[in-house]
Design brief:
Length: 548
């Protein structure tokens, strides 16, 4: 299973044997044999509850999974991360997004320096600026309050903030409107700017190096739009930067006093807790931003201190390993039953697939086993009418995480009760299924003829035995949202440790971007810089012909 068997531990070998024993066991039977199964395999942290009982394992499998985590050194690697060891070994960097939400008052020392001093300084700067914007102290060039906040970024500089702002929309200040531009497609700028008033618009340019081509191209377009309307001097009052490149920020025309720093020990997809979250603080207020940090910190403490067999991120990670590497289920689905969480699956796609979509291990060898699964999802109940057909009756099984708040922010009529009944029913239906005999009996009770019963019974049957987790919370508030995000961050980390890969670089995004820089001048009419393959050469020529 592992390359050269160098990591083929006793626990892994035991799990291979357990899979052979267990692959045809029905979850229905597991619940019948153990009336306390649901209680036994449910964990709670404050108002957050994880029910993982609807999974294909028993006590022996669970023990082997925990042994695997121990043998792969999950506890030590976890401690290394929190203690600022440089676990991002390909870039020789520490991984300290957890320090961004460290609420303990304790130091976090990296290369002899307490990084909490700089982190807390930036947080205080964010608090002052966000308060000043929200309450009209920091005004636009013409003296009007800035009520349209446009975040310009891509990847982690976009997905995290847009997801959190939407998730906490109920907490948003009524006269603050948030917009996000990420795609290099000019339509993204056009559709955002066409209805905005330059006098009331603030742009937040999020780029660590201030050289990201998508972000800078969009920022320059927005700058021109502003300058055309208000003049060059307006840039100072309508643009701020989230960056470490002071020279480039000043060159753009942004006042360095309005530049917010972050650090190379924070990867983009882990950066919403940093200055990248400035638009969140403006939208929902810094107090709520702090509650988001506090929720994540609570999950950090749980991850650090809970025994592996009572540890939410560890258990989610191990179940994912069980399905991905033993059952060969290489897809994974996340379905929040909350409209405000509709962007969470997109956020988790980057978090998981950019982190663990790797094929070279820590020792520099190509792996021979499956790493990160393909993730998809969407908001229930919408997706019940799209891809749930595949989840229930498709030939390939897909493990599912259901996320549901018991209380809605908008208790209108019976809406939320119906929503709750749907999510609980989906988990039960995936687990229970419906046998061909049960389907036949239903058809008979419905008055179908024997011929109709025979013709339809298989179509009406469901194999069931399809795994799911249910993450139930009281309400989606800033604290709970912080817990949920951190839960998935740590889950991804644990899986990376077990797969012996680096979850914190993203070199796979680079080649296409490099080639794009070569193709760009060719599209503008210059000679071909590279000896492209025949397909790419032909497509470049056709594009140029269409644009003549």
């Amino acid at each position: 299973m592992f390359a050269k068997n160098k990591n083929n531990t006793k626990a892994w070998q035991k799990l291979e044997a357990e899979y052979k024993r267990f692959k045809k066991v029905e979850m229905r039977d597991l619940f019948k044999k153990d009336e306390k199964r649901a209680t036994k395999y449910t964990l709670s942290l404050g108002d957050l509850t994880l029910d993982y009982s609807k999974n294909r394992f028993d006590a022996d499998v669970f023990e082997a999974l925990i042994d695997l985590a121990k043998e792969r050194g999950v506890e030590q690697k976890r401690d290394d991360m929190f203690s600022a060891q440089k676990i991002n070994f390909t870039e020789n960097r520490a991984v300290l997004h957890t320090a961004l939400r460290n609420r303990s008052g304790q130091s976090v020392v990296l290369d002899g320096k307490n990084v909490m001093d700089d982190i807390n300084a930036v947080l205080m700067k964010m608090k002052k600026f966000s308060d000043d914007v929200r309450y009209g102290k920091f005004k636009g060039y013409t003296g009007k309050k800035l009520t349209n906040i446009v975040n310009i970024g891509i990847g982690g500089s976009d997905l995290g903030p847009v997801m959190v702002c939407e998730a906490l929309k109920k907490y948003q200040m009524k006269d603050i409107n948030c917009y996000f531009i990420s795609n290099i497609d000019g339509t993204a700028c056009y559709e955002t700017l066409k209805n905005l008033d330059p006098e009331t618009t603030l742009f937040i340019v999020a780029s660590k190096t201030f050289t990201t081509i998508e972000t800078l191209t969009n920022a320059k377009t927005c700058r021109k739009w502003l300058v055309d309307a208000l003049g060059e001097h307006a840039v100072d009052k309508h643009f701020v930067a989230l960056s470490t490149n002071r020279e480039k920020v000043v060159e753009f025309g942004i006042n360095p006093d309005n530049m917010f720093a972050f650090w190379d020990f924070v990867g983009g997809r882990y950066s919403l807790w940093s200055a990248i979250g400035l638009i969140i603080a403006i939208a929902v207020g810094f107090e709520n931003f702090e509650k988001l940090l506090e929720g994540a910190f609570a999950m950090d403490e749980h991850f650090k201190t809970a025994p592996l067999d009572k540890n939410m991120p560890v258990i989610l990670a191990l179940l994912g390993i069980w399905y991905n590497n033993f059952f060969n289920f290489h897809r994974y689905c996340v379905v929040p039953y909350d409209e405000y969480l509709k962007y969470l699956p997109s956020y988790l796609q980057q978090l998981d697939m950019e982190s663990n979509g790797k094929s070279v291990d820590k020792d520099g060898d190509f792996v021979s086993y499956s790493t990160g699964p393909a993730i998809f999802g969407g908001a229930g109940t919408n997706v019940q009418h799209s891809f749930f057909q595949l989840l229930h009756q498709g030939t390939d099984l897909v493990p599912v995480d259901f996320i549901i708040p018991a209380i809605s922010h908008n208790e209108i009529g019976d809406h939320h009760q119906i929503l709750l009944s749907n999510v609980l029913a989906q988990g039960e239906a995936l687990m229970r299924g419906k046998t061909v005999l049960e389907a036949a009996n239903e058809l008979k009770k419905a008055g179908k003829s024997d011929d109709e019963v025979e013709a339809l019974k298989k179509y009406k049957s469901f194999t069931g035995n399809r795994p799911s987790n249910t993450l139930l919370c009281k309400k989606i508030d800033p604290f709970t949202l912080g817990e949920i995000i951190a839960l998935y961050e740590h889950k991804v980390f644990v899986q990376g440790v077990i797969w012996n890969i680096n979850s914190f670089d993203q070199m796979g995004v680079e080649l296409g971007k490099q080639l794009a820089l070569n193709i760009l001048p060719e599209l503008k009419g210059k000679s071909f810089a590279l000896d492209h393959d025949g397909s790419t050469m032909s497509l470049i020529k056709k594009v140029k012909a269409f644009r003549k």
